[in-house]
Amino acid sequence: MNLLYVAGLGRSGSTLLERALAQLPGVCGLGEVVFLWERGIANNERCGCGEPFLSCPFWHEVGQAAFGGWDQVDVDRITALRATVDDVKFVPRLLLSGGSGEFGTRLREYLEYYERLYAAARTVSGCSVIVDSSKFTSLAYILSHSERLDLSLVHILRDPRAVAYSWTKVVKRPEIAGQDVYMPRFSPAYMSSLYVGHHALLEVLRWRGVPGVRVRYEDFVERPIQELRRVASLGGFDVDERAVRGATDGTLRLETVHTVSGNPSRFQTGNVSLRRDEAWRAGMPRRQRALVTLMTAPSMLGYRYPVPLAVRDDDDQP
Q: In sequence order, what are the beta bridge partners of 154?
């Protein structure tokens, strides 16, 4: 099975990238599959099509094909398995000897749920390429142990100052109908440490032989077709511009995708404007910018983001 796994940190444009890929013939985007078990099966949150997960015709068929119905899936068992194998603290073991002993037994059981799900989605959609935008680094390592998956890594990146600032904002989760539920918020220092650590681990995974391509959010919004072609080359499929190009320059035409979880923007359809979204330049306090820059400077240099020698209120203004 040809699987494109979008890996990186949240608020980096992964939902936008996946939805654009899913407009292309032969490509099926599933959203953040890592959350399917809890948010989809257990909580029945809304699919990207707007329907509750358990009422969505696409996911109903996938559940039947994969497990004989979602009521046959032991969500508590998957949650327990995830706690013992799918966390960044297990990456060293996954890297060195993931398949051995009791840990290996749990790993194979956990992995099989994903393999069966991807296979069913491929059958139901009729697509040859499946996209999972879960982003979790540990899940990428787990999937690399599969003998059934032809895994490719789409390493999504964004300026760490923009990522850190975005995670301080209040964002409502519209997929939970009738309730005011918000996405978690994290400090810039915490997000900076995640930025450095997770991106480094993803580089190690590619160094270990998993094919991949880096996509910077800033490059994608400026040159979407070019960046889609780079990803398509990795996945072995073609880009039909007519399937995704918007009515005007700077837009993409994005239709409904059955994403199980993701950024709230997944519910927006039609001609979607592409923009860099650099609100952090004006909204991020100077001390926070300085801290994030200091903590992530080596990563910023490696990924071609400018590192100012001193942080001023007008730093990096266009």
A: 6, 213
Closest CA to 32 of 173, 223, 180: 173
Residues in a beta bridge with 122: none
Tell me: the pLDDT tens digits for 231-242? 999 999 999 999
Q: For residue 54, what pLDDT is reported?
A: 97
Question: How high is the pLDDT of residue 259?
Answer: 97
> Rounded to whole angstroms, how far apart are CA atoms 289 and 234?
35
Pairing type for strands 251-254 and 270-273 reads: antiparallel
Per the prediction, the chain carries an average pLDDT of 94
Alpha helices in the chain (DSSP H): 14-22, 57-67, 75-85, 91-97, 101-125, 137-143, 160-166, 188-207, 217-222, 224-235, 280-283, 286-302
Over residues 113-122, mean pLDDT: 98
CATH value of 2-279 in 1.10.3720.10, 3.40.50.300, 3.90.1200.10, 1.10.8.190? 3.40.50.300
The CA distance from 25 to 48, in Å, is 19
Report residue 209 as tokens.
């032989």
Here the tokens at position 227 are: 């960046």
Regarding pTM above 0.85, the answer is yes
24-56 pLDDT, tens digit per residue, is 999 999 999 999 999 999 999 999 999 999 999
Q: Which residue has the tokens 């789409």?
A: 154
CA distances from 229 to 46, 149, 238, 267, 291 (A): 31, 22, 7, 24, 36
